[in-house]
């Protein structure tokens, strides 16, 4: 097989410097620690990282060296048994756990297959007993992929072996683009697209047709299935470099799953990856692992486990925490005010690039404003400024003569639930958001509800209560919180609990948020809700008519993003445009992420159970005592594990089917073009054309503009004239590539947020 120095040919410094592993990576390792050549698997990692022991620490390691070390950690069967036992109680809280075994036929046909999570845990238990796991990672990966195969971004358990020691990456990000917006999209390296647009590379960029010998679409569709989204076109998009994800810095999925962003960081990519291009040439890249932990004085998998795995007691973790961890430098891309690469300067800037207001600065688009919302906030400090952005931007846009509004929700994994309601009310003050939801009616939920309701009812429901009373009164488990679907108070916990039966499972009575509630700004992280309570004075007609608004997504719309889009599309009648998707001409969905409307971290559930016992001591003999006191699930997890606790239900829908299982096509589909991967304005123009222009072209199913057949696949990209604004955008993209570490530790929280 011929390999060539792709990087040199591409001639772009970006990739060379973004390449994490030095060119000497394929040379035999030198023994430089004075102990002779390291042979034990983890000693090789240690040696690679610390070299001659000077201050330079390499945190990116050839993938195969890391893999050998990780594979050397022996399986601890007793800890694995205890872990499976300790996470089972939390599975009961997953609102879809029963439906996942037997979902509606259309979901199975078009979205994802059925999955029996509890059966899968039983199987893992049996495999532990049978001695089937060859090492600790083998067990961890099985557990991880079992939960991940639910394709619910709120539902995740990432064991230590899968995410806490190494994460993985490939040095070359890819894009999937249609040359002209009509031809079927093909996969290119992102740097080819950059070079093509600079018109200064010495070759014609050619599409990737095979990866490691497998046909490109088969390879990519398989890899995409390791993502957290449910929709297959959205999963496919998430493999690639995309400006909206990049704009989120470390809280997005980086340069795409293929290069190790988002859930891609948990999938071992092999020692190398070989791309074959349509023009016949090939390129092999060396893959890498990242680590943020110390490997000093480590030789074997046992050494690694002793230091970094907390099998049960928590002692190992305590020891590790007492040491200074290696720190990885991460580009501070989410600092307020720093324009994201590929984006123009905002007209009104929001906090941390989580929301910005733009105009489309191009002839013919003078009437178009863009509210770009790649997140719904997960940090308290940003809540008030986030809400204020819409409040400031909408009247300004109207005053500046804008009559059309694009709401760009690309990359939006959610955030604060009530920000979704608030934004809807800012746009449509006269509409009453529905948003009904339910929990699984479990014994634990019932006991907690009885205890919380009894405790919280002792105190007057006023804003002046202390924090202990507030956390009880503002929780779902005080029946005074929330209201019925008919906007009436619940009369008792028994009424709120139900249970109601639907499609074979038992659920609590449907409830809705009481947006006027005295504790609403606690539940919202600090804002009052537009149109309610202190802001009840905000009334009047819609600021933009529904037909003058369009929602644009890349399918990566999850959690609070789906709450908002459900209200916008169902209640206000706003249309959607879905970008990208697999290389076909089919209609695709706009909303491809979890449509559950609230996630709980295991830790919050544990707190509920323990507080319920505090409020009602006689519960100390109940399952709340036996099931929710082990810390093992946290000690053995990479990031806080979580479940989706609330199903979202549609207004006037009597089927009892949660939104999560409904398949819905977007009103219009557009392919990404090369320009759109470096200049977001070109995407907004295409969206405006599709929705309002005469020249717009939806790939399929569009009710607007002209339809065009798209048969031909893009094989090579023809260099075109570069626009001035694009050149500026490109420079920023390059600067970002140089600084971006691909590390996507998620810093966002929020009660309706999906981890990337
Ligand atoms: C192409 O132009 C860009 C921007 O000026 C520059 O960074 C890059 O090095 C150039 N590439 C080649 C092959 O000349
Ligand atoms: C395996 O895990 C148990 C806890 O379940 C722990 O006591 C034991 O030390 C671990 N074994 C090894 C070899 O670390
Ligand atoms: C073939 O395409 C690849 C990928 O665009 C490119 O790097 C290479 O230079 C091309 N080879 C020739 C001979 O044009
Ligand atoms: C991807 O392909 C491999 C190899 O054929 C297979 O083992 C694996 O199950 C596939 N993964 C998914 C998510 O389809
Ligand atoms: C060998 O390596 C270990 C761990 O790095 C170190 O503690 C020890 O001092 C070394 N021995 C020699 C002879 O250098
Ligand atoms: C809050 O008020 C309740 C009821 O008066 C009381 O029992 C509790 O101790 C108070 N908690 C704090 C932290 O002050
Ligand atoms: C909503 O909360 C407000 C303020 O606490 C309260 O007056 C109202 O009765 C509640 N509405 C319902 C339906 O419970
Ligand atoms: C929300 O309303 C309350 C009651 O009027 C007020 O004290 C608080 O400052 C308001 N919050 C914000 C962020 O405006
Ligand atoms: C509504 O009332 C708030 C104070 O509660 C005030 O800040 C705001 O300007 C008012 N808005 C309108 C539209 O009257
Ligand atoms: C549900 O039905 C009511 C009453 O007919 C109607 O006002 C409302 O718009 C409907 N909602 C949706 C989402 O169709
Ligand atoms: C449970 O709480 C009761 C008081 O309600 C106490 O008498 C009893 O000893 C406790 N039992 C346990 C097992 O903690």
Written description of the protein model:
- Among the domains are: 348-434 and 538-594 and 661-702, 2-enoyl-CoA Hydratase, Chain A, domain 1 (Alpha-Beta Complex); 436-517 and 597-655, no CATH class.
- It is 33% helix and 12% strand.
- The chain has 27 helices and 23 strands.
- Strands 10-11-12-13-18-19-22 form a seven-stranded mixed β-sheet, with helices on both faces.
- Strand 12, helix 16 and strand 13 form a beta-alpha-beta unit.
Task: Tell me the layout of helices and strands.
Elements (H helix, E strand, L loop, with lengths): L5 H5 L2 H6 L22 H10 L9 E3 H9 L5 H15 L13 H6 L6 H13 L6 H13 L11 H4 L3 E3 L4 E4 L8 E4 H9 L9 E4 L2 E2 H9 L7 H6 L5 H5 L24 E6 L4 E5 L1 E3 L10 H8 L6 H7 L26 E2 L6 E4 L8 E5 L7 H20 L4 E5 L5 E2 L1 H11 L8 E3 L4 H14 L10 H7 L19 H5 L2 E3 L2 E3 L12 H4 L25 E5 L6 H12 L3 E5 L18 E4 H14 L7 H5 L4 H4 L6 E8 L18 E3 L9 H13 L31 H16 L12 E2 L3
Parallel strand pairs: 12-13, 13-18, 18-19, 19-22
Antiparallel strand pairs: 1-9, 2-9, 3-4, 5-6, 5-7, 7-8, 10-11, 11-12, 14-23, 15-21, 16-17, 20-21
The structure holds 2-acetamido-2-deoxy-beta-D-glucopyranose (11 copies).
């Amino acid at each position: 097989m011929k390999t060539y120095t792709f990087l040199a040919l591409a001639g772009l410094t970006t990739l060379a410097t973004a390449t994490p592993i030095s060119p000497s990576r394929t040379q035999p390792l030198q023994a430089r620690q004075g102990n002779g050549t390291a042979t034990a698997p983890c000693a090789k990692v240690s040696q690679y990282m610390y070299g001659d022991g000077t201050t330079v620490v390499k945190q990116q390691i050839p993938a195969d060296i890391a893999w050998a070390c990780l594979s050397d950690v022996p399986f601890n069967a007793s800890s694995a048994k205890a872990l499976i036992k300790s996470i089972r109680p939390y599975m009961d809280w997953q609102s879809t756990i029963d439906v996942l075994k037997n979902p509606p036929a259309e979901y199975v046909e078009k979205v994802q297959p059925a999955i029996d999570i509890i059966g899968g845990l039983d199987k893992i238990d049996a495999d532990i007993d049978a001695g089937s796991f060859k090492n600790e990672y083998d067990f961890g990966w099985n557990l991880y992929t079992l939960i991940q195969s639910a394709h619910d971004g709120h539902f995740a358990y990432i064991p230590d072996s899968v995410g806490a020691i190494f994460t993985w990456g490939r040095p070359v990000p890819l894009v999937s683009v249609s040359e002209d917006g009509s031809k079927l999209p093909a996969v290119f390296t992102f740097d080819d697209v950059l070079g093509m647009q600079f018109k200064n590379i010495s070759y014609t960029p050619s599409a990737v047709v095979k990866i490691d010998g497998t046909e490109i679409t088969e390879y990519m569709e398989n890899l995409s299935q390791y993502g957290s989204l449910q929709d297959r076109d959205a999963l496919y998009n998430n493999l690639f470099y995309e400006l909206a994800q990049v704009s989120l810095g470390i809280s997005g999925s980086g340069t795409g799953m293929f290069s190790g962003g988002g859930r891609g960081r948990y999938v071992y990519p092999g020692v190398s990856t070989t791309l074959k291009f349509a023009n016949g040439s090939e390129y092999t890249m060396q893959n890498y692992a990242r680590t943020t932990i110390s490997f000093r004085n480590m030789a074997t998998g046992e050494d690694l486990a002793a230091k970094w795995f907390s099998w049960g007691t928590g002692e190992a973790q305590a020891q590790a925490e007492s040491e200074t961890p290696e720190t990885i430098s991460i580009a501070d891309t989410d600092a307020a005010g720093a324009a994201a690469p590929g984006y123009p300067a905002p007209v009104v800037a929001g906090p941390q690039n989580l929301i910005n207001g733009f105009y489309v600065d191009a002839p013919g688009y003078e009437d178009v404003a863009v509210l770009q919302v790649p997140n719904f906030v997960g940090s308290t400090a940003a809540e008030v400024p986030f809400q204020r952005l819409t409040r400031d931007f909408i009247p300004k846009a109207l005053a500046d003569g804008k009559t059309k509004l694009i709401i760009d929700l690309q990359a939006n994994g959610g955030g604060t639930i009530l920000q979704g309601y608030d934004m809807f009310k800012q746009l449509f003050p006269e509409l009453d958001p529905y948003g009904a939801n339910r929990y699984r009616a479990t014994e634990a939920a019932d006991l907690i509800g009885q205890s919380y309701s009894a405790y919280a009812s002792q105190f007057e429901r006023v804003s002046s209560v202390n924090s202990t009373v507030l956390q009880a009164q503002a929780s779902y488990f005080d029946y005074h919180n929330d209201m019925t679907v008919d906007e009436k108070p619940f009369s008792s916990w028994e009424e709120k609990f139900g249970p109601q039966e639907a499609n074979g499972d038992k659920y609590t009575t449907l409830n809705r948020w009481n947006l006027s509630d005295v504790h609403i700004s606690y539940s919202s992280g600090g804002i009052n809700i537009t149109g309610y309570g202190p802001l009840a004075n905000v009334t009047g007609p819609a600021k933009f008519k529904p037909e003058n608004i369009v929602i644009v997504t890349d399918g990566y719309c999850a959690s609070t993003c789906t709450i908002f889009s459900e209200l916008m599309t169902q209640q206000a009648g706003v249309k959607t445009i879905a970008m990208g998707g697999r290389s076909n001409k089919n209609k695709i969905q706009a909303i491809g992420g979890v449509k559950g409307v609230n996630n709980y971290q295991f830790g919050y559930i544990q707190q509920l159970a323990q507080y319920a016992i505090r409020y009602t001591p006689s519960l100390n003999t109940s399952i709340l005592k036996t099931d929710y006191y082990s810390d093992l699930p946290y000690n053995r997890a990479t990031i806080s594990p979580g479940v989706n606790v609330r199903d979202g239900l549609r207004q006037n829908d009597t089927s009892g089917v949660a939104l999560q299982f409904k398949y819905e096509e977007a009103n219009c589909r557009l392919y990404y073009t090369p320009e759109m991967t470096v200049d977001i304005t070109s995407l907004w123009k295409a969206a405006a054309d599709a929705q309002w222009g005469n020249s717009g072209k939806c790939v399929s199913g569009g009710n607007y503009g002209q339809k065009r057949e798209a048969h031909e696949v893009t094989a090579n990209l023809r260099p075109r004239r570069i626009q001035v604004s694009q050149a500026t955008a490109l420079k920023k993209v390059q600067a970002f590539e140089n600084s971006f570490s691909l590390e996507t530790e998620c810093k966002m929280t929020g009660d309706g947020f999906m981890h990337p």
